[in-house]
Amino acid sequence: MKKIHIVLLVFIAAAIAVLISFLKTATTYDTVETAMNKPGKFVHLMARWDRNQPMEYDAVNNPNYLSFTAVDTLGRSVKVIYHNPKPENFEMSEKLVLQGKYEDGYFNCKTIQTKCPSKYKDDMKTAEKNVQKASESNPGNADTKY
Predict the structure, then answer these.
(1) How many domains does the chain have?
(2) Which of 121, 114, 3 is nearest to 49 (CA)?
(3) Burial label, 104 (beta-carbon count in 10 A; 0-12, 13-18, 19+)
(4) Model pLDDT for residues 65-94, shown as the tens digit of each residue
(5) pTM above 0.85, yes or no
(6) In this structure, is residue 24 part of a structural domain?
């Protein structure tokens, strides 16, 4: 074999090894049902806090205990126990990324990542109100093009 062929084979083998290592670290979001079917296995669960169910958190007596019910996109719910302080923007979050294991009938959460509503939603509402106020205060300029 020529030296160039050997170099190309080594390069291809290295590229395959890198791709395989990325596939092992790539994560997908599980549902409550798939997490229940993998007891003891570390999973990422995309869910939201069920505001109709009670949340248990006492910042004074036990700040490292948070218990709440999470609901996934398919409507399945699971009790979540988190042994760290409650995230600051927990109540404002639209979605939660919960990382942990399903064990003994509940989801033992190691980390919570909150996904808050986009700031641009409020900005668009404010912009629409400003346009409406401007057109009301200057009715003669309502047809002005920008």
Answers:
(1) 1
(2) 114
(3) exposed
(4) 999 999 998 999 999 999 999 998 888 888
(5) no
(6) no
